[in-house]
Design goal:
Length: 213
């Protein structure tokens, strides 16, 4: 029996949950919600790091704390306002001040950082190839960035279709690296209710999916 079709659409802007009748939207949400309810469920967390080109770093002394990043041009995401770090001596929050570039497209920012235009904060896996090829170096490896948390956002807060629950449960299973849960345990799990200021939520590369039964 062939697998049912799954249509995915990638957007580098706000994702309209209701207008396009998505079954589920996967999005990186990095802000608090206000009143009005939207269901969210965390799918995974992705390690992030700070990266720059070797040519750019040859012009600067070695960095010791995240505060040293203020000396560089920053290549920021469309909604980036600050970056949180944990490392020797505790936590540090860095404000994103007048970045050289803002783009919700991580691919564009990756090309810019390889060209030596500045410093980027991005998921570590996204930079693996460039690191292996010597096109990028990781900065402040002893400091841990806040991970990129990916959430699933079904448009209906109370009625989550069974086809969406199956997808979310499978993603959760893969993230844990465990064994498949029983149907009873799966049905007993609840989606956490959060709040959103409007149907269009911040989406750093939001992925909307229509799942056909």
């Amino acid at each position: 029996m062939p697998a049912p079709p799954c249509i995915g659409e990638l957007e580098h802007a706000r994702a309209p949950l209701f207008e396009r009748q998505y079954d589920v939207v996967f999005s990186a949400i990095e802000h608090s919600f206000a009143s009005s309810t939207v269901v969210t469920r965390r799918v995974c967390s992705l390690e992030r790091g700070i990266f720059a080109s070797p040519a750019l770093m040859a012009e600067y002394p070695e960095l010791s704390t995240p505060n040293d990043l203020h000396a560089f041009a920053l290549l920021a995401g469309s909604e980036d306002a600050h970056g949180d770090f944990k490392g020797p001596g505790g936590g540090v929050e860095i404000e994103v001040r007048n970045p050289r570039m803002r783009s919700g497209n991580a691919g564009i920012r990756l090309e810019a950082v390889k060209a030596g235009l500045g410093v980027i904060r991005v998921t570590a896996t996204f930079c693996e190839a460039a690191l292996a090829q010597g096109k990028l170096v990781r900065l402040l490896p002893e400091w841990e960035c806040t991970p990129l948390r990916i959430y699933a956002l079904p448009p209906e807060p109370c009625l989550v279709p069974s086809k969406v629950r199956v997808i979310l449960d499978e993603l959760e299973l893969q993230g844990r690296g465990g064994t498949r849960s029983s149907d009873s345990a799966r049905n007993a799990r609840c989606l956490s209710a959060r709040n959103a200021s409007e149907p269009q939520l911040d989406a750093h590369g939001a992925l909307g999916r229509r799942l056909h039964p």
